[in-house]
Amino acid sequence: MDSKIELRKPKKEDAKKIVNLIKVGGTLDLNSEYLYLLQTTHFQESCCVAVWEDEIVGFVSGYRIPNENNQLFIWQVAVAKALRGQNLAMRMIMYIADNLNTQYIVSTVSPSNHSSIRVFQKIAQSLNAKLTNVVLFEINDFNEAHEEEVQYTIGPFTLKK
């Protein structure tokens, strides 16, 4: 199954399927459909979808951090439940990092999100790069009940083209 998964930049027509993937996954904050349309158009260079049998089974959204062109911020990572544990999240993140030729991967992760933390640890290990973390957003930074968000930074690293 793994070899049949295609990684590519998202297209506008993928936005509805991305919304559904995130709804079904149940762990990520669901943003507006408009945002996912923007991500599949304005930010498609820094996003990735995984497609299997014409279905979106994975999505990673990201962007270059303003004024830091060598830093890729990973915003959301979604993988269909049936495909979790197969390094698909890591492969999608590396697809984006490789296409953007970045030197750092940055993301925020809630402390209870152990699977995302493991993904970033695996990426750092595979790149032989340093992984650092610091609390970026504290609980009292949010209006609604929310865990703190820890910023993980991987890098610097050099990707081989």
Number of domains: 1
Distance between the termini: 26 Å
Percentage of residues in DSSP E strands: 25-35%
Which range best describes the helical content: under 10%, 10-25%, 25-40%, 40-55%, 55-70% or over 70%? 25-40%
Poorly predicted segments: none
Class inferred from helices and paired strands: alpha+beta
Average per-residue pLDDT, rounded, comes to 92
Silhouette: globular
The number of helices is 4
Task: Note the main attributes of this structure.
about 160 residues; alpha+beta; Aminopeptidase; seven-stranded mixed β-sheet; 4 helices; globular
What's the gist of this structure?
Helices cover 29% and strands 31% of the residues. It has 161 residues and is of the alpha+beta class. It has a seven-stranded mixed β-sheet with strand order 1-2-3-4-5-7-6.
